[in-house]
């Protein structure tokens, strides 16, 4: 079983002054990270600030997106090599906000996954169904397709050094968390899909839950057999809540 993992997704929030204060408060409770792997994914402009401030802690750095291209004339894009250069360990890929608001396709997400792996980054592949898809009982099919497109692109070996985050779209930022049982059912489905390719990779890969994780619901979610931690949005901007969530995972 992998050690638990909690990753903060700050989304498009923060400022130099606000980040410094948030990080200071998080670092003052760093006993919370002793038994887990923890990461923070700030917006691109603050990667260096966060990297410097967490450099003597157990906190790892991650980015929220990456270009599928390596370098060159791609105005406004950021390459995987640049993220690696800045000390990133992880990169979030295929977050539902990117899929929905920026029309990222499964194919593009798979290409980004490959670019991240080639630069030595650990992709955090975000997958999940919309409310309509859940109501039509398509959850299993949707998450399988999202994972399958990455397997088709890089092979199952690509998951040796990757993380999967199951984030039901209807639970993200809504306060409407999946119940531990609902989440566990999908996590088990994901692990089973991977087991069909490689049982050892399937048992080692972190499958995180994301979607309105908070200090009150984290423990019951993380206690489920196939939930290896969380990807935390809103609550990661509140230092005490984030620390409590981390404590719930360890
Ligand atoms: P939330 O976001 O915790 O605010 O629901 C999670 C995410 O989008 O990763």
Polypeptide structure, described:
The protein is α/β, with parallel strands linked by helices and 250 residues long. It has one domain (5-249): TIM Barrel (Alpha-Beta Barrel). It has eleven helices and eight strands. The protein has helices spanning 16-27, 47-53, 80-85, 96-101, 106-118, 131-135, 139-154, 180-195, 199-204, 218-222, 239-249; strands spanning 5-9, 37-41, 59-63, 88-93, 122-127, 163-166, 206-210, 229-232. It has an eight-stranded parallel barrel, surrounded by five helices. The longest helix has 16 residues, at 139-154. It binds 2-phosphoglycolic acid (PGA). The site of 2-phosphoglycolic acid has 13 residues, from strand 8.
Task: Estimate what percentage of residues fall within beta strands.
Answer: 15-25%
What is Rg? 17 Å
Distance between the termini: 13 Å
The CATH topology turns out to be: TIM Barrel
Give a quick account of the main beta sheet: strands, pairing sense, barrel closure.
Answer: 8 strands, parallel, barrel
| Arrangement of strands in the largest sheet | 1-2-3-4-5-6-7-8
> Would you identify the CATH H-level superfamily?
Aldolase class I
Q: Describe the global form.
A: globular
* Residue windows where pLDDT falls under 50 for at least 5 positions: none
Q: What is the H/E order? A: EHEHEHEHHEHHEHHEHEH
Which whole number gives the mean pLDDT?
A: 97
Helix content: 40-55%
Q: What is the top-level CATH class?
A: Alpha Beta
